[in-house]
Amino acid sequence: MTDPQFDELIHPSTRLSLVATLAAADWAEFAFLKDRLGMSDSALSKQLATLEGAGYIVTERRLDGRRWRVRARLTPAGRDAFNGHVAALRQIVASAAEPVDGPAANP
Amino acid sequence: MEESAAEQAGDALGLVDHAQRQVAAEVGLPRGYWWAMAAGWLVLSLIAQAGPAWLAAVATLGFGMGHSAFAARLLSGRRRTSGLQVSAAVAGRRIPLIVVGMLLGLAGITVLAALALNADGADHPAIWAALLTAAITGFGGPEILRVLRRWTRA
C-alpha cells in the first residue's frame, strides 16, 4: 500500500500522462511518447528534462543502425512518486464522496 | 471548493487511466511473427504433401524448436513494437498461454479443413487447408489475439 503524497511536479496534465505512460512500461522511446502524447519534440524534451532533473526518470541514447534513439524509463523514486500521487488523487475523490455528518444529515 | 478539487482529481485519474490503457493496447506480438508463422505453416504443409514422411517429421520438429527459441522473447507480449517495452505487470502472465492456445486452435482448423476438402475430393487438401490457416494467421493474427485477450481479460 502506497502512502498518498500529492506531487506538484507530476500533477500538470502533460507530465501526468507522460509519467503514467512510463509507469506502465519498462521503457519507452522518445518517438513513441511524442506520438502517443501528441507533443512536439521541444515540448517533450522539456518535460523529460524536468522529470530527469527531479530524479524521476532517466533517459539514455542508443545507437540503432545509423540512428540515435532516446529511451526514457521511470526510476524507483519516480515510480514511488507516481504511485503516491495516484493514491493522493484517489483519496481526494473518495473523501469528497463520503457523506457529511452534521445537523442537516440528522434532522 | 472541495467538489472542485475532487473533480480535478477525478479528471487527473482519468488521464492516468487513459495513458495506461494506451500502453496496455501495445501488448501483443509483432506483425512479422504472424507472417513468419503463416509461412512456416504453408512450408510444412508443402513438405507433408510432397516430401517423404521423415522429412515432414524433421521439418515439424525443427519448426517447433525454432519457434520455441524465437518466441521465448516475444510470447510475453511486451515487445510488439520497438517503441516501448510494456511492463510485466501490465502485460500479465497469460499471453503465452493464449498464443499457444490460439495456435492449437488454428492447427485444429487446418485438420478439419483438410478433412472436409479431402471428403469433397479436392486435390492437395493439406496445402489448401494450410493456405486458409496461413491467411487467417497472417492477416488476422494480431486482431484474433486482441479479441482473445478481451474475452479472457488478459
Structural description of this entry:
- The complex is a heterodimer of chains A (107) and B (154).
- By secondary structure, chain A is α+β, with helices and mostly antiparallel strands.
- Chain A has a single domain, classed as Winged helix-like DNA-binding domain superfamily/Winged helix DNA-binding domain (Arc Repressor Mutant, subunit A, Orthogonal Bundle).
- Chain A contains four helices and three strands, in the order αβααββα.
- Chain A has helices spanning 13-23, 30-37, 41-53, 76-97, and strands at residues 25-29, 57-64, 67-74.
- In chain A, strands 1-3-2 form a three-stranded antiparallel sheet.
- Chain B has 154 residues and is mostly helical.
- Chain B has one domain (27-152).
- Chain B contains six helices and one strand; from the N terminus they run H-H-H-E-H-H-H.
- Chain B has helices at 2-24, 31-50, 53-74, 88-91, 95-119, 125-152; one strand at residues 84-86.
- The radius of gyration of chain B is 21 Å and the shape is elongated.
- At the A-B interface, helix 1, strand 1, helix 2 and helix 4 of A face helix 1, strand 1 and helix 4 of B.
- Strand 1 (25-29) of chain A pairs antiparallel with strand 1 (84-86) of chain B, so a sheet runs across the interface.
